[in-house]
Amino acid sequence: MSEPAATALRLLRERGETLAVAESLTGGLVAAAITDTPGASDAFRGSVTAYATGLKERLLGVDGDLLASAGAVAAEVALQMADGVRTALGADWGIATTGVAGPAPQDGQPVGTVYLAVRGPRDGGKVVALRLNGGRAEIRRESVRSVLGLLLERLSDGPGHDRAQDTEQNGGT
Is pLDDT at 161 greater than 70 in this prediction? Predict the structure, then answer.
């Protein structure tokens, strides 16, 4: 069981809010970490694993022109995925992962490029850009840990924290 997932679910339950997940490079690992927590169904609505670029547009409402110009691995794509999954699954909060786990670059982005996003009920969302090292499994694992940490950070700041914010920051292991 993931401690960040369990803590985030507890905070969501306390707030009477729900969560949905949009995943690309993590391929369902975020949803698995969340559903490993007993009682997850109290706050977790579900997830969309949109691995194919076209599904990001069709299922999550990511702008097709954005996908054509920036590719699937971009900050604004992650934010639109988080917002789109909130809408599609009727949740208060949406989190998203997109990036390149390898073994080869994608959309002109090197392996280890990851964008994570969180979108709450009353904010403009937050995007974090990571440059991760390691193999495919390590990149995916760190992406799961980081997106849950981002969600937990936003939830821990309390309901008054949901203000407009759209930022990028670099990090990595």
Answer: no
